[in-house]
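--- STAGE predict ---
source: upstream dedup step, 1 unique chain passed
mode: sequence only
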Amino acid sequence: MIRSGSTALLGNPLLRLCSSESLNAFAQNAVHNNCHKKHLWNAYLQRSMTTLRRPGNEPKGIPPHAWFLLTIPAATFALGCWQVKRKAWKEDLIEHMHRRIHRNPIPLPLTMEEIDKLDYCPVTLTGTFDHSKELYLGPRSQINVENHKGGEGGGIFSTSKAGYNVITPFKPNDRDYYILINRGWVPSDRKNPAHRAEGQISGEVTLNGIIRLPEKREPFMMKNSPEQNHWVYRDVDKMAEVAGTAPIFIDAAEDSWIPGGPIGGQTNLSIRNEHMQYIITWFSLCAVTSYMWYNQFMASTNLRGRLR
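--- STAGE serialize ---
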């Protein structure tokens, strides 16, 4: 019973699947199926790559947005050209200023039309000061003081302590109105006229000076405070209105300085000329962005064309 049962049991189809021959056949069949699937996948990839390489599926020419990006190198090139013109203009202005300031002094013209054309022009005039209506321009450091005993050059990095330019009404003998004279610089502790009484000139005086026109307020610069007699920049019209003078502003020359008084010669002859740096910057940006644009949209397009 047992033998016959065993024979019957071994003859069962489920157990025959577990025999070694059957397992080997199953494994071979699985490997064959995997190889077939791999072959199908490779064939699919080859067909996909062939489709991608077709000329109709490659980008045609330069995309539209690339032309918009081309405005960046174009704009930087235009800015560089503009700075070239600005540099030439600034150099002409500096040359004109230095050429004019070294002229021989002339009498102060009588009309505003003439005066408005003579910025940085030396003049000579005789008259009297009215010290009761002083205005104070600052705070600022002392400039053009090399020729004064114990003085030092001024500038943004000057070690000179802060102070103020003293603006005083002055009545020329040859006219019936006052004008504004920048007598020069005093340190902050001598801003009060009582602390420099020996420098308050009385009576008739002859002095040399330089005509100055109004200056514009720079961006982010503090505003003037006429009600507090605090002036940050040279607003000639407003200063004249407050002091009751004609809108004529003259910087006193260095030779107007007397012991105890404001130090003259405070005309700023340093005009910033940094346009060469701007020229290099803008043209460099133009070159870099032009190369990037060519490498991205021209060189890559030509390379794809050669690989077809």
